[in-house]
Amino acid sequence: MRNLIRSVLLFVMAWGGVAAFYLWAGAEFLAFAQVLVYIGAVSMVTLFAVLLTRPRDQPDLVIEPPARARAAAGITIGACVAAVLIPAIWGQGLPATDRPHPPSAVLLLAGGADGTARRRPPDRRLHSHRRPARRRRAGVHPLIRRTGGRAMSPLHLCLIFSALLFCIGLAGALARSHAILVLLGIELMLNAANLNFIAFWRYGPPNAGSGIVFVLFAIAIAAAEAAVGLALVIAIYRHRQSVRLQQAAQLKG
Amino acid sequence: MLGSGLIQGLAVTAKNFVKSFHDPARLVTVEYPEQKTKLPENYRNFPFLVYDGDQAIDGLRCVACKICEAECPPQCIYIIPDRDEKGRPTKKPKVFDLDISVCMSCQICVEVCPFDAIKMDQHFEIATAERFNALLLHREDLAKSDAYFHTLHPTEAAQVDAVLAEAKRRTEAKARPAAPAAVPATPTAPAAPAAKPPEPPPPAV
Amino acid sequence: MSASVSVLLPPLAAGQVGDSALLERLPLMARDLLTAGLSEPWRWLANSLITIGAVIVIFASLFALLTLVERKVLGRVQNRPGPNRTGWGGILQPLADGIKMLTKEDIVPRSADRLLHFLAPVTLLALSVITFAVIPYGRHLVPVELDAAVLYFFAAGAATELAIFMAGWSSHNKYSLLAAMRALAQLISYELPLLLAFVPVIMLAGSLSTTAIVAAQGGWLWNFIPQWHVLTPPGFAGFVIFMVAALAESNRSPFDLPEAESELIAGHLTEYSGFKYALFFMAEYFGMCALSGMAVTLFLGGWQAPLPVLEFVPSYLWFAAKLLLVLLGFIWIRATFPRLRIDQLTRLAWKFLVPLALINLGTAAFWSLTHDWAGPMQLVRWGGVSLAPSSDVRRPRPGHQRGIAPRTYRYA
């Protein structure tokens, strides 16, 4: 798997996973925007940058393993941050209110007087309202029950998941010396932050759209950041024929 | 105007589309196995042997003189002359093989043949699944009637008939001891040197 | 998945119950009849599977039909009969092609990335199939109801680029890779006008849901002019931009540079053979069908009948008729125009279509804000909206290569 293209493609899968999380949380619009921006645009820019910055002497796009000290430092810092964050989340008494989903346009339409209602028993009509709630109970709550008697909301799990994602991104950004991989690590951290916004939007006070708007802006900014960052990487490559960050440090005082 | 060229182009293709249903003359495609175009008279591909009369093998004009075998550039002709029981040549081919996978359709065999015995065929549907024996034609495959030759190349066949008739007339005249017949024949004698069988004729004009 | 997902939920809008109600509901009734004996979660699953199967079967047979129709029409345009050997009038030609493709050897280059080489056509096909989920095929026939259906459609469409990159890169062939990069450059360039072209429709309809967009195009002006978006000036401009960009997005002539069969070998498909190649081909036609279906939904009134007297025809038949009309338009365009050069292609996108789409956005805003102007102001409204796009057609000035002017080359 030590292949740059494959790791970028795996990264795309991670972005797809984040989109799936948004979908699960009920933020359809964001999920599709995430796919459109990240898989449709950012991944393409990244892949172009990877192909344009191939070292001359390498036949294939192999990732060289990071220096041992660097890797150790990166992973340690990531682990430390995780060790700080996760107990902090654990200890918080977070509200466990799962607000009902906003009714969608379809269901409003279906709720009107229609000719089909008489053919359908009334409880089946409600079925599509209820189904996501049932699936959540099946998917998340058994996990919580297994963690012990401690009262823990799905919000805790979302936050812990996002904290883990953040720490993985942090460790990657610190441990790698390949500029594009560092940028990808930063993207991962941004995505983790977005996950937090959506988790709080989902389980926070009802009728607040700010989480969605924040994430929408964050996605736009992340796309712009990827474009600028990868342009910088290509510019550095043109000067030094390398994208190793240690070699681009002559402005260091 | 912007885009007027595009609209003109679309109109042209639409016109072609609609008219191709109304005007059969537009469809120039010849649907080959069912329909065939008339081949031009001078079209040729591989040689065949002409026979006179009804008997394909006995009526062959070929006398197995092996001139074509010697002249063939890719050497695709193979001849064994037939001999009777006393070992004298019967002036017939015992074996006449022609490998059409080698033949290059140059027509030299036709031009060197003093007997007008080998001519070019127009049969082009020769595809086979077997590339050795199926493409090696034997005496029996090659023998085709004079009438067939007439249908293929009527002009050439008429000339050939004239030459053969003249030669026959001259041999008959020579065989007849009467002198008066030879007198009108003398002016034409230099014009038909091909009449003497064993000598190769001058190249065709 | 959120609460708005409902598989083929039949919402019969109030007041729409007419003579055609039975015909309209016939597909749904057939489905319900099939799954009547099942208990609830299984019934839902069976209904979903039937819907998915129906969509795939219908569009796969449309794909087969389309390959034949395309070759027939191209032949007629070029005064040829077209394929007519297999079956009556060539009707079995797609079947013969399918058998040929299935029985061909599947060659994978020795140094190819086998996993990605396999995944590329599968991903591409899967992503093109899921775009069919949100198109309303009839009054009650929407496989999945989503609030952000249009965005979903274009997100799935944008993700297909990844599959093309995978195909080019995993072949381990420099020509494949270069062709894939060219194809991606084209797809990304035309993604932008494609996305900008439908925004006026969103503004006019006020929704991202395809059902709501089609519903917004219902009704008739003076009882005979349909209120489709294509008949409004911003909608018309959007439709033209959308169709040009859709041609480029689905790699159709005159924008078929990614696999220009008369110039390149097969672009990013160079190292594909047999059924994998057929899958790419299928995905391309699926993409074309999906984009045409979306064009019909967004601009051509979806399943709405063109005249009130024609409402007795079931809505899905109207959708099918419009879809086939758009697809025939694609074929007609392919039969007519020569292929663009790569610089002409990108210039058309960035210097003509994107500015035009942005102007159209402003026009659409003006149009939807002034919908209550009456009398002579109506003339002002139409005039202003009609003149706005002409500001994109600029006269070439010496020294400035702009707009759609022919390009001059300066060599060093």
Give me the side-by-side strand order of the main sheet of chain C: 1-2
How many angstroms separate the termini of chain C? 58 Å
Shape of chain C: globular
Q: Return Rg of chain C in Å.
A: 23 Å
CATH architecture of chain A: Orthogonal Bundle
Most extensive interface, chain pair and sizes:
A-C, 42 and 47 residues
Overall mean pLDDT of chain A: 75
Instruction: Report the principal-axis shape of chain A.
Output: globular
Count of individual helical segments of chain A? 9
The name of the CATH topology of chain A is Helix Hairpins
Largest sheet of chain A: none
How would you describe what is shown here?
The complex is a heterotrimer of chains A (253), B (205) and C (412). Chain A has helices spanning 4-25, 28-52, 68-91, 105-111, 122-139, 141-146, 154-175, 179-203, 210-240. Chain A is mainly alpha-helical and 253 residues long. Chain A has a single domain (4-96, 151-248), classed as Helix Hairpins (Orthogonal Bundle), CATH 1.10.287.3510. Chain A starts with a helix and ends in a 13-residue tail after the last helix. Mean pLDDT of chain A is 75; it is low at 102-149. Chain B is of the alpha+beta class and 205 residues long. Chain B has a domain at 47-152: Alpha-Beta Plaits. Chain B is built from seven helices and six strands, in the order H-E-H-E-E-H-E-E-H-E-H-H-H. Chain B has helices spanning 4-22, 67-71, 108-112, 139-142, 146-152, 154-175, 182-185, and strands at residues 47-51, 77-83, 89-99, 118-120, 136-137, 143-145. Chain B has a three-stranded mixed beta sheet. A three-stranded antiparallel beta sheet of chain B has the order 2-3-5. In chain B, helix 5 (146-152) crosses helix 6 (154-175). Mean pLDDT of chain B is 84; it is low at 181-201. With 412 residues, chain C is mostly helical. Chain C has two domains: 24-98; 104-371, no CATH class. Helices cover 59% and strands 1% of the residues of chain C. Chain C contains twelve helices and two strands, in the order H-H-H-H-H-H-H-E-E-H-H-H-H-H. A two-stranded antiparallel ribbon of chain C has the order 1-2. Chain C is globular, with a radius of gyration of 23 Å. The model of chain C is unreliable at 1-18 (pLDDT under 50). Classes of the chains: A mainly alpha (253), B alpha+beta (205), C mainly alpha (412).
